[in-house]
Design brief:
single chain, alpha+beta, two-stranded parallel ribbon, globular
C-alpha cells in the first residue's frame, strides 16, 4: 500500500498517544511510526537509552532562555541571520493556514546540526545548502545553552 493510499484511509480521531518500544523489528517499527505519524502526528519512544540528565539539561536550558526578556531573545531573531537559525518569537510563524496569516503563539529556537567541538573549516558540510552554516547561540545570558542543545 502506498503512503497516499494509507493516508486516504485515515479518518479516525486518536484515543491515546502511541508508545514505540525500542528495540523492535525494524520493519514493524517503521510501520508503527508511519501509522502514528499519519493518525496522531507524534508518538513517545521508550527504551531509547538517552540519559535522563540529557533531558534535564535541555529543559533547564530552555526554561532559562525562554524566560529572558523579549529584547534579549530578539537579538538572535532568525530573520536577521543568513541561514534562518535563532529565535522565533510568538506570532512569527503560522502552521495553520486557516489562521489567516495572523501567526500563532509558539516560540522556538532554530538550530542545525553541528559538531560538539566546532571545526574552523568543515569541508564535508561546505555545500549542504542555504539552511546550513553556523548556529547562533545566546552568550552570557544563557550559559550552557549550546552544550545542552547539541547534547540533546
Amino acid at each position: 500500500m502506498s503512503l497516499a493510499e494509507a493516508a486516504a484511509g485515515v479518518n479516525d480521531a486518536f484515543t491515546s498517544i502511541p508508545i514505540m518500544t525500542l528495540p523492535e523489528g525494524r520493519t514493524a517499527l517503521a510501520h508503527e511510526i508511519r501509522d502514528a505519524c499519519m493518525k496522531v502526528g507524534f508518538f513517545y519512544i521508550q527504551n531509547h537509552s538517552i540519559p535522563q540528565t540529557c533531558f534535564d539539561n535541555i529543559f533547564t536550558a530552555m526554561q532559562t532562555y525562554f524566560s529572558l526578556p523579549v529584547e534579549t531573545k530578539m537579538k538572535l531573531h532568525h530573520k536577521t541571520v543568513a541561514n534562518f537559525k535563532g529565535y522565533s518569537p510568538p506570532l512569527d510563524g503560522n502552521i495553520d493556514p486557516a489562521n489567516n496569516h495572523k501567526g500563532d503563539f509558539h516560540e522556538g529556537f532554530e538550530i542545525g546540526w553541528e559538531e560538539l567541538e566546532a571545526k574552523a573549516i568543515d569541508e564535508k558540510r561546505a555545500n549542504d545548502g542555504a539552511m546550513t552554516g553556523s548556529n547562533v547561540w545566546p552568550s552570557d545570558d544563557c550559559p550552557g545553552f549550546r552544550d545542552a542543545c547539541l547534547e540533546y
